[in-house]
């Protein structure tokens, strides 16, 4: 999912928002020489590890961090959002490390970059490091927002080297694969102008995501997408020896998997050219990714039926992580639309709690469910960056408490060992 509107905001509203965050969460000043020590996240079988201890993720999506940091008048919101997440005990934020062509493009054309935008990404990473939040960085979009694979295909076509005008040629065209590889090596070897650390050596980055929600409908067998995943995951690992890698899947089962009939939302889900098991089993993929949007995947189910689907969907993928993949499973996007006809704000709390409860149960049983990331959080006054899933978490007390409770429940499983006692202090206070 992604929202794509990029309008400017009233200066007064922006100032009010920053004052509110300052009053609510404390000093926003940054000293990059005093940032927390963040070790790399590794994995051992079905679990993430930090300092040789099992580590679980409670986090969120704010896809807009780099784009918002380009201009000085928007930039303080990036640190404010990351600080607010840290104050809730959240450990990972998923965000875009791409913007291909168009407004505020990081990659203007193949191999050509806007240093001003790259410095905005530097800033987002440095701010995350300062606040003790790790970033899951996505490298390209399957969707058209922020360029995506459509832009790569246009570039190849404009340069007269494209094999096809189909968006799916992103996955099989040799010239486009070269474009993407050049982009990958440029990003991974980028030296942060604020911290002085190359991205590939920065433990602030939790993991790389190859592509957001990949689909290759021109080849429903899945062979084309699988070949691309094999090649690109190996390429990332050849450059970066430290970071974890995931695909960015929605989690649908492919045409050869029997679960397509009993777990997939509908028949269309098995014809998208992706397969959760096959794609995630790739040697250089460290953990599996899954999304949860039942109200978009079904059009004839009520809220209660969607909750039942959520449980079945999650438990199936956690079982796959344990029995088939032997890798962690992260639910890297989940959200409930406020445009549903029967929507009530209380439904979001129930939807979130259903997902978070399953993660906690998995953690208590040492299963593969490694964490979940809400889509999406944003700040008051920036609704133009939101969508029908967006939440300002502190605006609803019950939601805010639910988020903190999840952070504390996961921390208690490991005896409050996460992040050197930061959560111990948070969870010892009465909310």
Automatic annotation (TrEMBL):
Q: Which UniProt keywords apply?
A: Glycosidase, Hydrolase, Membrane, Secreted, Transmembrane, Transmembrane helix
- Catalytic reaction(s) noted: Random hydrolysis of (1->4)-beta-D-mannosidic linkages in mannans, galactomannans and glucomannans
UniProt keyword Transport present: no
InterPro entries reported in the protein's UniProt record: GH, Glyco_hydro_5, MAN-like
Q: Biological process (GO) annotations?
A: polysaccharide catabolic process
Question: What is the main EC category here?
Answer: hydrolase
- One Gene Ontology CC term in the entry: extracellular region
The record's GO molecular-function terms, alphabetically, read:
mannan endo-1,4-beta-mannosidase activity
What region holds the Glycoside hydrolase family domain? 40-377
Enzyme Commission (EC) number = 3.2.1.78
Q: Where are the transmembrane segments?
A: 7-25
Localisation per UniProt entry = Secreted
Q: State the similarity comment.
A: Belongs to the glycosyl hydrolase 5 (cellulase A) family.
Please identify the protein, giving its name as recorded.
Answer: mannan endo-1,4-beta-mannosidase
Q: To which species is this protein native? A: Acer negundo
């Amino acid at each position: 999912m992604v929202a794509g509107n990029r309008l400017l905001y009233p200066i007064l509203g922006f100032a009010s928002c920053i004052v509110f965050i300052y009053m609510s969460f404390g000093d926003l000043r940054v000293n990059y020489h005093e940032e927390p020590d963040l070790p790399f996240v590794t994995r051992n079988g079905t679990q993430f590890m930090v300092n040789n201890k099992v580590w679980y993720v409670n986090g969120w999506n704010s896809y807009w961090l780099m784009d918002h940091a380009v201009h000085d008048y928007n930039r303080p919101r990036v640190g404010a959002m990351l600080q607010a997440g840290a104050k809730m005990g959240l450990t990972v934020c998923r965000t875009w490390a791409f913007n291909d062509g168009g407004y505020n493009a990081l990659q203007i054309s193949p191999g050509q970059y806007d240093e001003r935008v790259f410095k905005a990404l530097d800033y987002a990473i440095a701010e995350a490091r300062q606040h003790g939040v790790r970033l899951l960085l996505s490298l390209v979009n399957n969707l058209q927002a922020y360029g995506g694979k459509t832009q790569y295909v246009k570039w190849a076509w404009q340069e007269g080297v494209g094999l096809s005008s189909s968006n799916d040629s992103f996955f099989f065209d040799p010239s486009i694969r070269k474009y993407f590889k050049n982009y990958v090596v440029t990003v991974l070897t980028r030296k942060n102008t604020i911290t002085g650390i190359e991205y590939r050596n920065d433990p602030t980055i939790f993991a790389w995501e190859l592509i957001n929600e990949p689909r290759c409908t021109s080849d429903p067998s899945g062979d084309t997408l699988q070949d691309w995943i094999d090649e690109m995951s190996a390429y990332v690992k050849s450059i970066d020896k430290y970071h974890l890698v995931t695909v960015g899947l929605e989690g649908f089962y492919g045409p050869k998997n029997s679960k397509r009939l009993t777990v997939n939302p509908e028949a269309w889900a098995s014809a998208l050219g992706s397969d959760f098991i096959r794609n995630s089993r790739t040697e250089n993929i460290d953990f599996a990714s899954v999304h949860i949007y039942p109200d978009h995947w079904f059009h004839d189910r009520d809220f209660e039926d969607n909750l039942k689907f959520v449980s079945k969907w999650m438990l199936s993928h956690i079982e796959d992580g344990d029995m088939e993949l032997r890798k962690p499973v992260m639910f890297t996007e989940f959200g409930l639309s406020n445009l549903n006809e029967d929507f009530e704000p209380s439904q979001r709390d129930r939807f979130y709690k259903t997902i978070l409860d399953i993660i906690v149960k998995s953690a208590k049983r040492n299963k593969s469910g490694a964490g979940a990331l809400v889509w999406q959080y944003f700040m008051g006054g920036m609704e133009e960056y939101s969508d029908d899933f967006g939440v300002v978490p502190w605006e609803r007390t019950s939601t805010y408490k639910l988020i903190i409770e999840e952070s504390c429940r996961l921390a208690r499983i490991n005896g409050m060992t996460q992040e050197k006692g930061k959560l111990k202090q948070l969870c010892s206070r009465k909310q």
